[in-house]
Design goal:
Length: 610
Amino acid sequence: MRVLVPIWMALTLILVPASSRAADAVQALIARHLAWRGGDAFARLESLHAKGKTATGGLQGTMESWRHRDGRVRQDEDYGVVRESRAFTAEDGWKRNASGQVEDAPATDARDARHRVALDFGTALRGGAGATLTARPDEQRDGHTWKVVRVTFGDEDLYDLFLEESNGALHGLRIREDNVTRFVRLGDWREVQGVRMPFLEEEFDENPESNGRTVVEALEVNVPIPPAVLERPPQALTATFANGRHGTGFMPFEFFNENRVFIPAQVNGHATSVLLDSGAEMTVVDTAYARELGLKTEGQVAAVGSGGQAQAQFAGGVDITLGDLRLKGLTVVVIDLSEVSRQLGHPLPVILGKEAFNPLVVDVDFPNRRVAFHEASGFKAPRGAVRLPLVESAGGQREVLLSVEGRPAIPVLFDVGNGGALSLFPAYWQKEGLLAGRRSSKTLSGAVGGLRERDVATLKSVELAGVTLRNVPTVFDDAGNSISTSDRLLGNLGLAILARFRMVTDYATDTLMLVPDARALRQPFRKDRSGLIALPSEGRLVVKLVAPGSPAAVAGWKPDEEVVAIDGKAIGADYSRSELANWRYRPAGQTVVLTLKDGGKRRLTLRDYY
């Protein structure tokens, strides 16, 4: 039997937008979910106080959290060797790092916490907190098909709810913050005062070693948060000076290869040198050196560096002495730095991270190759210093603003451990089309996590502290699993630029002070003009990359070829420390004679190729 639909009815059906039907379906699904969570009891939920056990990266510990629907949050985790706390209010936030130092929390961390509260209390699902809800395609996960609802808050972060169609039960959330995605699976749902709450939370990270599991053992709802819970704790005294002094005075440092700062130090009483690195969220000790010091390591997590990721463990009870300064009781990350050391051509037992910067004024006088550490009180800025904001950013590091070729200033990582001039992250350079029509090639860059092949080109100008720097060689990072994945930081500012100033940091006042060095600013940036990207290894250079369009590429060089001498001078054990290592930076037009492992010789005329 045929059923004829009147023409007016057919037109009505056609004119109902698919988007409207989808929105209605989302609202119906969310209504079922809110009812499943507890209906009116869930709508009246004001606060949560939870205690339990937590585990991540091979570490076991305890947790306690306070959350209020108005955005107040306090979270504590105690894994023994690592203890961390953080708190957020409507006005600001703070966190206590693994070494016990109290820091301002980045604004983006506070924003992330508000997003999660708006989801946990259902505010975002009822149309509050500036949230927008949209339907996504159904997805399979854990052997079941789920309805997926995406929640956004007008920024770049994404929150996908995986819901059971029939009753709106919540299986978990896929969260993308700072371009990093994780899935939080929720289970062991129980009713507490009429509200259904998860007593099990399992977090699946892009790095399996960082997966976590939290079991709630006690949960209170609608209890007041004591004001003391959110108060900023006093600063831990991790930095002290000998003999009642207030600073070290200037100490000489080794400016290795003119792009790394090594400071003489003692670590747990052992004489060594440490690499100064503001880009390191925690101080790093090499695995072999940790064994030499007798450090007890615990856990197993993934450490994210400029080159990707590396396996890391934790160790406590580390004291570092720099002249009259003692940094006491640090908790450090232990990573195998042997490959990074080989790439640098310099021993790398310790990377001194932001624990040295947090409590002190750090004065790096690049023109005179000396460094000093001071108590913040009483320190006077050097004459001619230009003050710049230096604020907490994503990942617990610091950012500074920099302008690229006259564009609006962007936040870039302040990274004294980066030996290059500048790298830009794909969230910025791709959007701006900075490689379009620009002569470029390839290079290898990175450190912790390894070397990666990346684009390299020359920017016409970069502006920092009122100074315009021209013809700046710049690495254009990919979106690999490294710090360059970020869409909050848009680049990484390194020593090839920073070393053209006397540089003073005062983290207590979020200030970077730069005094331009006229002589250094007149010097052109070093650029490779050979195209042979090679690493030293036992008296030879092993070619790892032949840069496209370079003199080496035109001459037919291949990866894995080995060079044993340059202009007749053998590549010795001290090659990386010698002037010979600068052969590839010589002026365009010069010819270099390279001797191969088999005794053959090749001539290579240097020129600019990017």
